[in-house]
């Protein structure tokens, strides 16, 4: 298993946001984290990338514990976190944003430029915008730039937080198709997304979070067909302790 999150508790000051989250992500998968606002999805990604060090529990990447590491260490191990809100560097061009994404690798300029060209192959629209300032791009173009910048770190695991937020439906569809292509090319993806239907269409498996706990988990195709999934996602009461996996043999 590439990523193992076990019984992780995370807090913002005195407020406990995660109450013992456990998830797994296998190499080559797209796994989605679903749930309403405040469910703990973004906090889970921040705990993995060590932006918020867990209060307790364990996170292992490729068998090695992430305990005691800082976010820069985690990037160097092969985990890239694309946070919600895109966070394009102001005053920098598209190509400079991309080059900065490669900084943790300490690679030579020639290697970085080759990687920029490879990323332009994944996001052709960015090639024609290379000299434009990042903040002048449309919302969809900025989201593509944010993902492309994450890929410049050459991650084995890409953490994506709400890539469809604020985008038009047609643009969202393109972003999701790109995420699927990235996974097919060999990058494992852990995707936080409120658009459950689209996320489940590209994911292999998913976890539904509710108030900092795993409420449901299972194959994406099974969750898509699950009445219990629909009730959980719409915010109806769900039995959250213990969490359970929805299987093809479940009546829910």
Tell me briefly what this model is.
The chain contains 10 helices and 11 strands.
Write the layout of secondary structure elements.
Elements: E1 3-12, E2 15-25, E3 30-34, H1 41-48, E4 56-61, E5 64-65, H2 71-77, E6 79-82, H3 94-101, H4 109-122, H5 124-127, H6 139-151, E7 157-161, H7 169-184, E8 188-192, H8 196-202, E9 205-210, E10 213-219, H9 220-224, H10 227-233, E11 244-246
Parallel strand pairs: 3-8, 3-9, 6-7, 7-8, 10-11
Antiparallel strand pairs: 1-2, 1-4, 4-5, 9-10
Describe the protein's architecture and organization.
With 252 residues, this protein is an alpha/beta fold. The chain has one domain (3-246): 3-Layer(aba) Sandwich (Rossmann fold). Helices cover 35% and strands 25% of the residues. The chain has ten helices and eleven strands. The strands form two sheets. A seven-stranded mixed β-sheet has the order 6-7-8-3-9-10-11, with helices on both faces. Strands 2-1-4-5 form a four-stranded antiparallel β-sheet, covered by helices on one side. Strand 4 (56-61) and strand 5 form a beta hairpin. Helix 3 (94-101) packs parallel to helix 6 (139-151). The longest helix has 16 residues, at 169-184. It is globular, with a radius of gyration of 18 Å. The model is unreliable at 234-244 and 246-252 (pLDDT under 50).
